[in-house]
Amino acid sequence: MSRRAELQETLWRSDPHTALKHLIYRHYVNCWMGKILQKFPQATIVDAFAGPGAYVDGPDGSPVIFAKAYLEHSHMSRFRNLSIITAEVRPDRCDELSRRFAVLGTDKRLRIAPPLVGKFLDRFPDLLSAAHPNGSEAPVLWIVDPFAKEPPPMSVLRQCLTGPGLAVGRVARNPGRHVIPEGAGSGQGGWLSVLGCSRLAAGVCVCRWRGQGGAPGGGSRPGGRRAEDVRP
């Protein structure tokens, strides 16, 4: 079976890029949870392109990685509430993700919402509402890593940054996936002005931590360090 055909299946094989990406996710969310879930009564992770939660050759997908990171964290006993919200365009992959979630351990402080079926842009209002129920300003970690080459519009990413304590994670296979048509430089509405990042390159781009009540970049990243990006 060709790689293109394989990627049309419910589950497909992982690859080295995926393994590296998930290693970075795992390290980052372990720090994020250790910092955020002991300070705030509620936080949320939104995985906007969730996939089926696993790969045919065994590794977990990102939503399951986040749930396990909570359940297996060394400081879990001191953690407060975390919600995990996911979206996936294909119903068969949503069903598989639900099955993967169902066999995990449970904790009343970890709330995993049923996956939303549909395209990211179509379901974005629902994701945004679920991330901020009743106008909540609890910290939200958005994982926005689409399968397609074209990234979401800057206008959408800007809305992800409407409350305190927000970060957007983005992993690229190549520098081209960081090219944003809507003014990718430091001008008004560009990547720098919207996300607060200083560099665009292949790797992981995590926007500055926004401290409670402060402006973007006014706080610190989990771990206490001020930084614009994390490199593999």
How would you characterize this protein structure?
With about 230 residues, the protein is α/β, with parallel strands linked by helices. The chain has one domain: 3-Layer(aba) Sandwich (Rossmann fold), CATH 3.40.50. About 30% of the residues lie in helices and about 15% in strands. It has helices at about 5, 15-35, 60-70, 90-100, 120-130, 155-160, 190-195, and strands spanning about 40-45, 80-90, 110, 115, 140-145, 165-170, 205. Strands 1, 2, 3, 4, 5, 6 and 7 form a seven-stranded mixed beta sheet that branches. Strand 5 (about 140-145), helix 6 and strand 6 form a beta-alpha-beta unit. Helix 2 (about 15-35) runs parallel beside helix 3 (about 60-70). It is globular. The two termini are about 30 Å apart. The model is unreliable at about 170-190 and about 195-230 (pLDDT under 50).
Supply the key terms:
single chain; 232 residues; alpha/beta; Rossmann fold; 7-stranded mixed sheet; 7 helices
